[in-house]
Specification:
alpha/beta, Spore Coat Polysaccharide Biosynthesis Protein SpsA, Chain A, 2 domains, 8 strands
Length: 318
């Protein structure tokens, strides 16, 4: 496996795309490669910056979302191994070699790598720390892969019908379809990258709302509530949060207003991960994690409610 197509779906990525492309050009790789950036209707300088990098093919299309842009890149690719790299990711020099060698096994259709945080602001740092912690706990063989730094066998992608352009969880969707087709998916901790996460609260919560809706799409389609990335513990936080809130409200009405003190349990749910991350990073900013993730759980609940209402509305129409 010495020929790889690297696909970067990019939308308004002018802040990070130069660093992303520079890391791709700096990869330790002696084989053939092509770099395809699909400019997904950006209104900033993403395409202009990308065009300054030699060897990068820029395909500009109207905005249609990351899965559509990725599909366009796959259709334009010439090699059997296609790597999907987010525009806000910086690859380590040895990433490509480590992401490709598991494809020597013909049963492997996808390989994903380890993600470290690159953000300096508080919300981005916390998201990055928590992602690293979850990745440290992941096994080698997985059922689902993210899109940030992942390679696929192109023929397998075509076989299962390409990426689903109707869901935000398109990476999980295709992972489940590849597994259902009998392929193996690999998590290789040695294939490392750094990722710039959402750094503003509004953008972060909007993203988490989208994740909630996407996760419910996957539950409806595949009947799976969790995987090695979105764990059972994360899934259970939604009903647990609702139980704590309802318990505190009902208790304050039927017994005593002091029952509202139970709401302190909401951030306390996140203390084990907070302590584990602090022991690794020694960053006092991590004390904000319980409060940030409590807000995240509220965004998940709101997403679940909206998704449920849309589902009920669609059922009534049929």
């Amino acid at each position: 496996m010495n020929s790889v197509s690297i696909i970067i779906p990019a939308y308004n990525a002018e802040k990070t795309i130069a660093e992303c492309l520079a890391s791709i050009q700096n990869l330790d790789w002696d084989g053939e490669r092509e770099v395809i950036l699909v400019n997904d209707g950006s209104t900033d300088r993403t395409a202009e910056i990308a065009a300054t990098f030699s060897g990068v093919k820029v395909i500009s299309v109207p905005n249609g979302g990351a899965p559509r842009a990725t599909n366009i890149g796959i259709q334009a690719a010439h090699y059997d191994i296609v790597a999907s790299v987010d525009a806000d990711v910086v690859l380590e020099r040895g990433w490509l070699k480590n992401i490709v060698y598991p494809f020597e096994d013909p049963n492997v259709a996808g390989v994903t790598g380890y993600v470290e945080g690159a953000s300096s602001k508080l919300i981005g740092r916390i998201t990055g720390y928590h992602t690293e912690l979850r990745h440290l706990r992941r096994p080698q063989y997985v059922d689902a892969m993210g899109s940030a730094n992942t390679a696929y066998r192109r023929q397998a992608i075509i076989e299962v019908g390409m990426f689903n352009e109707q869901t935000i969880d398109y990476d999980v969707d295709i992972s489940y379809r590849l597994r259902s087709a009998g392929y193996q998916l690999i998590f290789n901790k040695e294939a490392k990258c750094k990722h710039y996460w959402r750094e503003d609260l509004k953008g972060y919560l909007k993203q988490q709302y989208g994740y909630a809706c996407g996760s419910l799409d996957m539950v409806q389609k595949f009947g799976k509530t969790h995987n090695q990335a979105s764990t059972l513990g994360m899934t259970l936080q939604v009903p647990l949060t609702l139980i704590i809130i309802l318990g505190a409200i009902v208790g304050s009405i039927l017994a005593s207003p002091l029952a509202l003190i139970a709401l302190i349990l909401l951030p306390m749910v996140h203390l084990p991960d907070t302590i584990a991350i602090f022991n690794r990073k020694r960053d006092w900013g991590i004390v904000a994690l319980p409060w940030l993730f409590t807000l995240r759980n509220f965004a998940w609940i709101y997403g679940a409610i909206v998704w449920g209402l849309r589902w009920a509305q669609s059922r009534l129409k049929t």
